[in-house]
Specification:
Udp-n-acetylmuramoylalanyl-d-glutamate--2,6- Diaminopimelate Ligase, Chain: A, domain 1, Alpha-Beta Plaits, 6-stranded mixed sheet, 5-stranded mixed sheet, alpha/beta, 364 residues
């Protein structure tokens, strides 16, 4: 049986909530963590149309990129907006999980996905994650139980470095301890100094997952009292950050890349400010509303910047600087999130029925 909690954990491993912006609201927003799930509908937004599709499909979980709830409710009443949709979710017995800016910043998340669709290679974050939420967890375990503890830590989300999972390091040594009165030692005799062949097992863990990782480790460890260390790290999250910068296999022009982006993102509603004939090889992008990162795109040496919403003053600045910027629309640049999240769930939950909602750009 797969529960809402199980799916939330799978999504958090792929797009850790620790990467979400401070103003965001991600994770399980409406529902029961213990409820069983057989069918999931994935959508960009929680809308009346998405809820109707979830009901028709018998889906008990809706996974969206955009959170339904940003601000606290003072009243949950029919208002034709957010509260109405929240009431509909509850009446429909449908849970809601949002995976928003954590998906934007995840190493293999939305920006990386869209960069790949556009043909960008050797990508890196445009705005590297400033947060340093990683810790090192070190535990000492009998050699025969090291693999079980290692697996438990991986299952709790520890050991993720970029696109690599289950990353650990181990070294052999000798542990000593003397069981005192009132103990029930796994090995050894009360009152006698014991020497045991042990493995020092260490891994990295996001701060937000530390409690779960320690609980899983303790459950898999055979000792009555477990020796472990938690150490702060100064590392930035590898590969995490908003936007992406990458290179094209062949150079092109800003005007030609505009046409290419329209085909890939399946939209004709694109706008270009700046020179259409500028040669382009390095492209910066940020899905959704990323106009404020124009200066960052120029600063990293990109030849062009593509995002989903460009304000008037950003377009003026791009023209003045002779730097092409493309407004590809919020919906077209973020709609691929639904397919990406669906692929993650299908890969990690092969017995789960995963559907993608039919949605339309609100701009037509």
């Amino acid at each position: 049986m797969i529960t809402v909690r199980d799916i939330a954990r799978i999504l958090d491993r792929f797009a850790p909530s620790a990467l979400a912006e401070s103003w965001d609201n991600v994770g399980l927003l409406v529902g029961d963590p213990a409820q069983a799930v057989e069918t999931v509908l994935v959508a960009l937004d929680c809308t009346p149309g998405a809820l109707a599709q979830a009901a028709d499909a018998g889906a008990s979980l809706l996974v969206t990129h955009h959170p339904l709830i940003f601000s606290p409710f003072k009243r949950v009443m029919e208002d034709g907006g957010t509260a109405t949709l929240a009431r509909a979710l509850i009446r429909q017995d449908c849970n809601l999980i949002a995976v928003h800016t954590n998906l934007d910043s995840a190493p293999a998340g939305l920006n990386t996905h869209v960069a790949g669709l556009l043909g960008l290679r050797d990508t890196r974050p445009l705005i590297p994650s400033a947060a340093r939420p990683l810790l090192k967890l070190v535990v000492y375990v009998p050699e025969a139980h090291a693999d079980a503890v290692r697996a438990a830590l991986a299952g709790a989300g520890a050991g993720q470095i970029g696109n690599y999972s289950e990353c650990t390091f181990s070294a052999r040594g000798v542990g000593t301890f003397r069981p005192e009165e009132g103990t029930t030692p796994f090995v050894g005799t009360r009152g006698q100094l014991e020497r045991v062949e042990e493995t020092r097992l260490e891994t990295v863990v996001p701060k937000a997952r530390l409690g779960g990782a320690i609980a899983a480790m303790l459950a898999a460890h055979p000792y009555e009292e477990v020796a472990y260390d938690v150490l702060p790290l100064e590392n930035a999250w590898p590969g995490a950050g908003l936007g992406r910068v990458g290179t094209l296999a062949e150079p092109t022009t800003a005007g030609a890349f505009l046409e290419h982006a329209g085909t890939v993102l399946r939209t004709a509603r694109l706008s270009l400010a700046g020179p259409a004939d500028r040669p382009v090889r390095t492209v910066a992008l940020c899905t959704g509303s990323g106009g404020d990162f124009l200066e960052a795109a120029i600063g990293v040496g990109a030849d062009l910047y593509l995002t989903g919403e460009v304000k008037h003053h950003h377009a003026l600045l791009a023209r003045q600087r002779g730097f092409p910027i493309i407004d590809a629309g919020h919906y077209p640049t973020e709609r691929p999130a639904a397919d990406l999240l669906a692929d993650v769930l299908r890969r990690d939950c092969p017995d789960l029925r995963v559907l993608v909602a039919a949605e339309r750009d609100p701009w037509g």
